[in-house]
Structure formats: C-alpha cells, structure tokens
User: Fold these one by one.
Assistant:
Number 1:
Amino acid sequence: MNAGHHPLPKDLQACAKALLQRPSDSHKYDFGRVVVIGGSRSMAGAPALAGMAALRAGAGVVEIAVPESIAATVAGFNPCLIVQPLAEDAQGVFAAESLPGLQHLAQRADVLVLGPGMGRAPHLAETVLAIWQTFPRTLLVDADGLFALASLPADALAQPPGPRILTPHAGEMRRLSGSGLADRSALERAAQDFAIARHAVLVLKGPQTLITDGIGRHHNGTGNPGMASAGSGDVLSGVIAALSAQQLPPLVAARFGVWLHGLAGDFAADAMSTPAVTATDVLDHLPAAWKAVAGDLPA
C-alpha cells in the first residue's frame, strides 16, 4: 500500500508540508510540550502509548504525570519520556490531593492530554472538572477522562477557557450524550450537537471516523478493523496532541492526526495482517506514515 491509496485531503497538505520542513536552527521547545495525565496501577501502558505517539508525531518535549507506583514502569517504556510521579490512593489511582501537583504540571504544557488509563474512581471527576475549567490552552480528553466528563453537569462544561478536543468511541459518545443511540448517523448528529454545546472539536472514532467542530463535518478515509485493539485510541490521542502542540488549529490537528494514525494502521496491517495489529504496531509505523506523506506531497 502507498499513501496514494489514501490521499491526504488537499486542504491539509500545506500544514503537512510545513511540519515536515523544520528550520535548521530548530530547538525542541519550538515544537511544543505535551503533558499527559493518566495511568493507574493496572493501566501503566495507556499514558506511555500516548506519550510515545506524541514523540513520534513531532512534539519537542513529552511529560507524563502518573500515580507514583507506576512511574518507573512508564519511564521504562521510552527514555525520551519525562515522567512525574504523584500521590495515589489505595486503589492505585491519583489521590484527590494530587490535584495541585497536576495543575502545576499543566501550567507548562502547550497541550494537555487527560484520561488515558486514569481509572474511574468517583473523586477523579472533580479532578477532570477542575482541569477542564481552568486549563487555558488545548486540552484533549480521552478514555477515562471522557467517563468522568459524562458524569458532570452540562453547564459546568459549557464555557471552557481554551480549545477542547474529545476523542470518544461509540460507547463513550452514548455516555456523553446520555442516550442509547445505536444508529451511527444518529451518533454523528449527537457528536455534532455536543461539539457545538461544548465549543469543542469532537472525534467520533470508528469506521470513517467523524471529526467535527459542530459546523464542519469531515470523515476520514484511512484505517482498518485491525486498529480495533486496546491502546490504539491512546496512540491517536498522542498524535493529535503533538500536532496541536506544533500550532495546528484544533480541527486541523484532529483531522490530520486521525488521517496519519489511520495510515500508520494501514501500513501495520500490510506488514502484520489485520488480525495481528496491536497499538504498538500502529505506533511503530508512524515513521512510515510520515515518510509516505513526504513522498506524496506536491513539490
């Protein structure tokens, strides 16, 4: 397979070209700091996948805040990650008293990823709400962060102080919308309505993933069923966050990120077979996806 089978939309080609042509005097901080907040005693891999994907998608610095008992495990996945341990409770999730530390780490983030592997303890909803209401730059919420958002009153989420990107799969979208919608077209309408109400970009994952800000609707053409595997969404969160940290607008970062992630998954399926694809295979094929983008762009 080559990138020509899944062409990058023409309106995204200029931003892709700009990302690929880095100035010779570049510094790591020119490409943004992504901070990932997540992880729990039973899910150390999720924030690590998001962090490693952010590195492969071009972020200059990636920092991960995790409960203290898993910090060494997360750091062991990749030496390029900066890992910050914070207080945890008896269940191995962030303790309520970790919130000031999380907010301190968030202050230096260009983009914040909230939720991968974080767990679903009731007190975490308060942590998610506090960050949603105070973080002034781009916040991407995924996985357990979305579970927490679904438990919060709608008016508490209505006026965020900065851009918001949400990346639910169908089940998470049903929970966010408070409905039992089964029909994909109805879910897409709910996603569009939710995006408008929360002033957010919403990525409804699945076949031909929908990316919408409530006004525009964009369906993605890359990807395959092999990507329906644990951790694939964490990789996507890291990719979108890194593109956003490189100053792409939220809707553009989401569209390009979904496309690039899907292309990496297509390369992984070609190499491994569709049933054998794992999230780490998608991560490992991001360099090939970038090379395909570079070879496919007009001169």
Number 2:
Amino acid sequence: MTDSEFNRRSVGAAIAAWMGFFVGPNAVLSSTQGMFMVPMAETFGLSRTMISVVLLIAPLGVTLCLPAAGRAMDRFGLRNVLLPGLILFGLLHMALGRVQSLWMLVLLMCLTSITAAMHSSVGYAKLIAQWFDRRRGTVLGLAVALGSGVGSALFPQLTQLMITRYTWRGAYVALGTVVLVLGVPVMVWLLREPAAPLAVRQSSTPDAGKPGATLGEALRSLTFWLIFFAILLTMTALLGTVLHAYPMLTERGFSGAVATTAISSIFIGSIFGQLGSGLLVDRWESPRAALPFFAIALIGVLVVHSATGNGTLLAGAVLLGAAIGAENGLAAYLTSRYFGLRAYGAIFGWVFAAACFGVAAGLIMMGAAHDITGNYAPMRLVFASFVGLSILSIALLGPYVYKSARPEAVV
C-alpha cells in the first residue's frame, strides 16, 4: 500500500529541508568555527578567551533572535523567512572574508547571527513536521543526517583546505559561495508548505482538531523546561567540545591531520545518530527512545576529552557525533509530540535557542578553562555532569500528547 504521506510535493519539501540543513548554520557555522580560532586570534592579536568571545557572538545572537524568528515563521510563512535568511547568510560569510578590523568582525558576526536564526533548523524541522506525521521521525532523521550530518563532515575539510591554501579569509568566501550556489536554487524551486497541517487534513483521531499548544501554554509547562534544560546542558557539553576540539587535540599531541579527521568523524557519526534516532522514535512511541543517545553523549564526551591514541579518539569522536546528530532531531521531534504544530515555530524556536546558547556557553567555558589552567582538562568532568543531568531530565518526561497516527508504533 502506498503511504499517502509521500507524494511529489511532500518529497520536494523534504528535499528542500535536506538542502536547508546541508547549508544551514549547524553545518556551515557551528562545525567550522573551531578551525578559525587560531588563525583569527593571530590576525587580530587576541587571546584564546577573547577569540572565543568574538566567535560566540554568532551562537549567542542566534539564541536571542530564534524565538522572534520562530514566531515570524508561524505568522508570515516559512518561505518568506527562510529564503531571505539563506541569501543573507551566504552573503555575510563572503563579507567575513574581507573584514579588516576587529569592530567590523564583531558587526558582521552580529548580522550573521540574525540571518542564521532566520535560516535555522527551526524552519526546516517545521516544514517536515507539516508534511509528515507517521514517518516524521524517519524523514526528519534522513533530512538532518544527509543535511547537517554530511555538511558538518564535509565543511571542516573544505575549511581546513581553504585556510591552508588561501588563509581564513578565503575559507569564509568559499563557505558563502557554497551556500549561495547550492542552497538558493533548490530552496526557490522546492520550498512549499501544505495548505493545512497534515494531522488536520488526514487524521481522524481526536487530536486532529487540536493543532497544539500556544507558546504561553508551553512556557508554563514542566515538560517544556525539562526538554529545554536537557538540550541546553547536552549541547553545552557536546558543542563546547567540538568547537575547541582542534586546538584541544593538537595541544594533547595529536597532529593537525588527525585532529581534522576527528572533527570530520564527529559529524560522520552524527549521520548515524540522526538516522538511528529517527527510526527509533517512529518505532517506539515514548520519550525513553531518546535515552540511549544521551548515554552515548556521556561516553563520547569522556572519551574525546581523555583519549591518547588515534583509534580511541576516532571511536569517541564517532560516538560524540552520533549524540549530536540525535539531539538535533530529538529536540525537534519531542517539541512536535508534546506541543503540536499550532505554534511550533515559536516553541521550537525557544528549544533551539537553548541549543544555541549551549554552543555559546560551551565555547566560552572551554576558552576560559584553557586560559586559567593552561589546558582543557577541568572541563571533562564538568561536561560529563551536564550530560548526566540531561539524562535525568529526559527520564522524567511523561507520555506524548500528540501521538503519531501510525498504528504499529510501539508504546
């Protein structure tokens, strides 16, 4: 029997979401920032803490702008927010390659954060949630895995190559070019929303008449804050580790080539994490499906922060990546199942803002630890504790409110 969720327009929308994830802030911005840390610090004469402060402008700015961007997507439509954000995001990356002063760098980072919020995972996750219900986890997992996962594995390699040949300025120009040349045509062609949320059009369950919670209702619920802090703490640990991975690993004696391979391995692992989490949440109708991936996050953090051999390091990097990939999709999926689609952009904007704030917090905490102690060792147990608290938060979640219509789901 043909699954009615899959048709020409829904598959086109899924492809648009995939491309959006591929050239989105997670892949282009978050995965490469650590590569710019040392050369930019040398160019502008900054300490490790100060360059971390400059680089955290983008994730911190995204955190502040995401709730407003999410509400704009709900009010004005995805196409009217995502497309301008995508174009400006690419142009600003090219402009970063021409920056000549610290104040100009700070200004462009601030502007980049605004466009990153407009062109973020919030919009692409909402696009998939609107078109897919029974296969939502699987499609979301595929889109993020082949989008953010593949992009985050490739862009560090491209960035390192361009920095080696053309300095960090050339690397920013290359990243902006990829965003504009690959992303814009696909999005213009395929980015379309359904006439009404799929759950309302196709489902005969009582929930079909209940589009979801308002933002205010979500913010007043314990469930929202459990998800919020689970994502915040885990992303602080995971992305703080990733963004300082290159200098951390080279200082521990690994070669630049091995450190770069480890970073790419992290994002290769994210592909498997995203695919695995998507399939599991569609099969197991319970938030407990997220727990294995939070456990993997704990193991990955401990290994990457302490490994001394290449094999152990790369294995830990893959586990760390699997956790990152899973967390990105799980945050979007859990939001849809607990709060529905009525104000999905606004609500997930807050949840994704937690992830972005975690990026900023992890970035600055790692930089400060290095400047104070001369190494990154103290952060191993701090980040492990953060992930442990996240596991507890997910374990406390109750049953889904807006369950899938798929009859074979395991409860």
Number 3:
Amino acid sequence: MKIALIQMESSSPEVEENVQKACRHVDAAASAGAELVVLPEFFNVPVFTLTTNKENFRLSEREAGFSIRTMAGKAREHGIYIVATIFEEAGLGLYYDTAMVIGRTGDVEGKYRKCHPAGAGTFEKFFFRPGSEFPVFRIGEWRVGINICYEWRFPEAARSLALKGAELIVMPFAASPKLKLSKALPVRAWENVLYLAACNKVGHEGEWQSGGGSLIVDPRGDVVEEASSTAEEIISAVLDRQLLFQARLENPVYRDRRPEIYSAVVADVGSFEEPS
C-alpha cells in the first residue's frame, strides 16, 4: 500500500479555503498513486487552542459537516482512504479531537478520539473531552491505529495499538519546531515493530508555528521519508509487508513480553511507592 502524508499550513480563517487547499494536495497525492492519504491535525482550521476563547467552539464540526463531507467526496472520487482530523462536535456540549477514517466509497468507516488532550502550553483540555479507547481499523490489507500529536509522549498508547494488531500507526500532528519528530518517533516504530507515519502541520497560523518534519518510519526504526521543516509538501512511501514480517522475526518482542510483571505500567499515579 502506498501512503502519502500531506504537510500543509492552514492559516486562513476561512474553513473552505483550508479545505480546498487540502483537496488540491489530495488530488496530487492520488495522482501519484497514493492509496491512503493522511492530513495533519486540524487541517481545516488554524491552531486555536492557545487561549480559552469560547468563540473558538464555532470551529467545531459534526461528522457530516463541510470538511469531512468534502474529504469524503475526494475519497470517493479517487477510490482512496483518507484520515482527516477535525475539532468534532459529537453532541451538544461534547467536543473531541477526532481523526476520521474515510473509506474508498466516501463513508466514514471509523473514528479515533484523542485520549490524551495536551495540558502544557495549550488549552486542549478546555476544548476537548478525552476519548477512551484505541481502535484498530482495516485499511486495505493493513491493520491501522491512530495516535494524535501529544500522544507520542505515551508509549502505552502505541503499545496498546500494537497489541491489538496494528501494523501501521498514523499520527496527525500540529506540533511546534521544538519537537524533532525524527528524533522522537523512530524508536516508537522500532520498539513496536511496525510502520509509523507522522503528518505535521507547517508554517505560521497566527501566533502558532508548526515545525513540519513529517516522516515515515519502517519497522526497523529507519526513516524512509522525511519532509522539510519549512515548506508544504507531500511525502510518500510504499509499505512492504515482507519487511514487516522479517522485522518481527528479527525483533521478537511479542514473544518475549512478560505482561504478568508489568502491573506498575497501569497503576494509578497515586500508588507510587517510595524506594526502600
């Protein structure tokens, strides 16, 4: 399967303008043979979580809103899968940071709601309710999980997906230049022996700057493709199942795991014990 990541800036205050830009990038990716196209976190709006301005709730959309409806049309037009992340209004007073998995027929085949809204340097927790599960989706012949942005800091999130059978983890980002994706993420792919695809925003959106550096990492932890830190661009790679199988033979972590002795990993923080 060929995957394409669309590294883009969403600086316009007009949702339609950002979505139409994304459409042009999707067209280009599909024309180059992409079967799965990934958009960055909040591709349709500028980053809005730097303040607790309640007016920003107007940026939320329902699943059937303009942004996902338009992306669904592109998925159907090209016969591809698209992962598109929006500020979702799930119901009256219920808001999530949600990645929609759109199938080849234009149907939303599933969604992942970010389980770890960020609480340092941003007000995501003011806007978003946390999700509560890590679903794995079937995309073509691949089993695909999703983590969103800040969740890279939680190895448990990626491992949960891996233990559910994920062979690829897609990570939409809206991360600053301070986060060097090429330093932070290859180990996540290597330790879980799977592909990882991190799609970041780039450029300035008001007071926020995104750092680009989108990348695709293989199951051996090698960076296959990496975008610049300054420009809009599309990067792509063909995922190789044989390489995945070989990497898991070389690195048999799933054979050697000892889950019966890992209780501390899921212990409440309040149960930490002082060393004797």
Number 4:
Amino acid sequence: MTNPNDGGPAFPTTLDYGERGSQTIGGMTLRDWLAGQALAAIINADGPQYFHLYKPHATVAYEQADAMLAAREVKP
C-alpha cells in the first residue's frame, strides 16, 4: 500500500517557548480536512435518508480530496 500525498498539515501552529525555542505542531493533514469538507457536501447533497452509506461516502470523499491535492500540483 502506498501512502498518498497528504498535503502536509492543514493548520500548523507554532508554539513559542521564548529563549528555549519553538515547536511547530501540524494537527490534521490537508487531505483529511479536504475529505471532511467533501463529506459534508456529499451528505448534504444526498440527504439524511442516505446517512447509512457512510463507507461509500467516506471513500468518495477521500477520492475527491486526492483529486484536489493532485490539482494543486498542476502548473498553469
């Protein structure tokens, strides 16, 4: 199994410790954030009668997230 491009951290935060330095914390990946946004749109479009289709919805959401990440690599 290959690891897909996760886009890096979606909302990185840097903690400043003053003279002791700093640390960057990444949180969720951009891929996960994009999939969550896509999932919300999919569920909204399908309606509550299809909530039980969580596995197919999640699969499609990650496919869309991967497509969005791939589109970022295309140079105009």
